[in-house]
């Protein structure tokens, strides 16, 4: 509580965003260079998937946009597809589905791996008519057998998803971007993370939560993506960078 009060007094919401943006910009690396350094062939495969998904989803995205349904575009799908292929996770947890770009990226990699299950937490956008029906609308039907979607908001959904024996290998956080929302999530998921997990957090420029969390981890990365920043950390990140994809797949 004292640290939270200190941060708010020192930075305020706008000043905290400015400080977080400056920090992220100073840390940022080129994502394709990083992926290619770990496994050039697998990164090229992830990039090809991202292009294919964008092309195949475009007609439906345009149709819905014409009807006033806009749930956001793709963000970091190459990274999530690459990490899922590399880690071969048994359990992936994501928050914030919207159109389902990241969801499709994870599920397509799970299908290629023939392993894993994705649990997703979302809350229908009140500004969109019949919003719940459109959650994940870019996710192809053939990928949905490894997917469980909860739509009552993170605080309720995580209680349903994170049962006592649940252990999560890969996390993608893209829901409540406030300090309180991020801090709640990190506390809630911590007991359920495996020793080799990786955590991906979108829009880390909004506040200093990722920076503070990254300081507790042995390694972290920051990537610039479409004018924003993505953070990646967790013990599995170091293992992936040290030993490569083949080692992760053999675990």
Summarize the structure.
It contains 9 helices and 7 strands; from the N terminus they run H-H-H-E-H-E-H-E-H-E-H-E-H-E-E-H. By secondary structure, it is of the alpha/beta class.
How would you explain this protein's 3D organization?
This protein is of the alpha/beta class. Helices cover 52% and strands 16% of the residues. It has 9 helices and 7 strands; from the N terminus they run αααβαβαβαβαβαββα. It has helices spanning 2-27, 31-66, 77-87, 101-113, 131-134, 154-161, 179-189, 209-214, 235-249; strands spanning 91-95, 117-121, 147-150, 168-173, 193-201, 220-225, 228-233. The chain has a 7-stranded mixed sheet, with helices on both faces. Strand 2, helix 5 and strand 3 (147-150) form a beta-alpha-beta unit. Helix 2 (31-66) packs across helix 3. The radius of gyration is 18 Å and the shape is globular.
Question: Notable features of this structure?
Answer:
7 strands, 52% helix, alpha/beta, 251 residues
As a whole number of angstroms, the C-alpha radius of gyration is 18 Å
Order of helices and strands: HHHEHEHEHEHEHEEH
Number of helices: 9
What percentage of residues falls in helices of 4 or more residues? 40-55%
The rough form would be described as globular
Mean pLDDT: 90
Spatial strand sequence of the major β-sheet: 3-2-1-4-5-7-6
Biggest beta sheet summary: 7 strands, mixed
Structural class by sheet pairing and helices = alpha/beta
Our estimate of the beta-strand percent is 15-25%
Termini distance? 39 Å
Could you tell me the number of beta strands? 7
Given as residue ranges, the uncertain stretches (5+ residues, pLDDT < 50) are none
């Amino acid at each position: 509580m004292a640290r939270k009060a200190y941060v708010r007094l020192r930075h305020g919401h706008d000043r905290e965003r400015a400080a977080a943006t400056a920090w992220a910009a100073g840390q940022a690396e080129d994502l394709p260079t990083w992926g290619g350094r770990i496994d050039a062939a697998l990164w090229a495969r992830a990039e090809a998937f991202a292009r294919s998904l964008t092309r195949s989803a475009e007609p439906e995205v345009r149709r819905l946009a014409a009807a006033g349904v806009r749930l956001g575009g793709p963000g970091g799908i190459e990274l999530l597809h690459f990490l899922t292929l590399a880690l071969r996770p048994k359990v992936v947890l994501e928050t914030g589905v919207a159109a389902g770009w990241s969801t499709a990226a994870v599920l397509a990699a799970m299908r290629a791996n023939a392993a894993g299950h994705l649990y997703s937490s979302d809350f229908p956008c009140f500004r969109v008519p019949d919003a719940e029906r459109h959650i994940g609308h870019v996710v192809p039907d053939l990928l949905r057998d490894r997917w469980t979607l909860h739509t009552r908001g993170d605080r309720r959904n995580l209680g349903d998803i994170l049962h006592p024996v649940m252990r999560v290998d890969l996390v993608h956080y893209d829901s409540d971007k406030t300090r309180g929302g991020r801090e709640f999530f990190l506390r809630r998921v911590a007991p359920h993370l495996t020793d080799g997990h990786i955590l991906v957090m979108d829009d880390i420029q909004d506040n200093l939560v990722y920076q503070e969390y990254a300081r507790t981890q042995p390694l972290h990365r920051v990537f610039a993506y479409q004018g924003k920043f993505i953070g990646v950390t967790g013990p599995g990140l170091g293992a992936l960078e040290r030993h490569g994809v083949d080692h992760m797949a053999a675990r």
